[in-house]
Write a structure and sequence with these properties.
With about 100 residues, the chain is mainly alpha-helical. The chain contains 3 helices and 2 strands, in the order E-H-H-H-E. It has a domain at about 5-75. The chain has helices at about 5-25, 35-55, 60-70, and strands at about 5, 85.
C-alpha cells in the first residue's frame, strides 16, 4: 500500500523547518562556523520548499501565496480541493542524495 501525503501538511512542515533554521541563523554568532553551516542548510531548505511548492500547487496565485507564507510570514493559502494527495514515492530526495527531509 502506498502512503499518501497531504500536500497542505507537507508544505506546512517545510515552512516550519525553513523558519526554524532562519531563527537559528539569526541567533548564531556572526562569522562563526555554526552560522556558515546554517546558511547552507537554510539555502537547501528554501530550495527544497520552493521545488515542492512547484510540484504540489498548480495555480500560480496559490504558489505566490505559499512563497509569501514561506518568506514573509503571510497566512498560508488554501489549496484547491481538487489537489490529490501525492504518493510518497514521488517525493524527491534531498539535493545531496540523502534520505528525504525529516518530518
Amino acid at each position: 500500500m502506498t502512503a499518501q501525503i497531504d500536500p497542505r501538511h507537507e508544505l506546512d512542515e517545510l515552512v516550519g523547518r525553513f523558519r526554524h533554521l532562519r531563527e537559528e541563523h539569526r541567533r548564531a554568532p556572526a562569522g562563526g562556523r555554526a552560522r556558515r553551516r546554517l546558511v547552507r542548510e537554510l539555502r537547501d531548505a528554501e530550495e527544497h520548499a520552493e521545488r515542492r511548492i512547484l510540484a504540489l500547487v498548480d495555480d500560480p496565485e496559490v504558489r505566490a501565496g505559499w512563497a509569501a507564507h514561506l518568506h514573509h510570514g503571510a497566512a498560508a493559502p488554501e489549496l484547491p480541493a481538487a489537489t490529490p494527495p501525492v504518493p510518497r514515492e514521488s517525493v524527491p530526495d534531498r539535493p545531496d542524495g540523502r534520505r528525504p527531509w525529516p518530518r
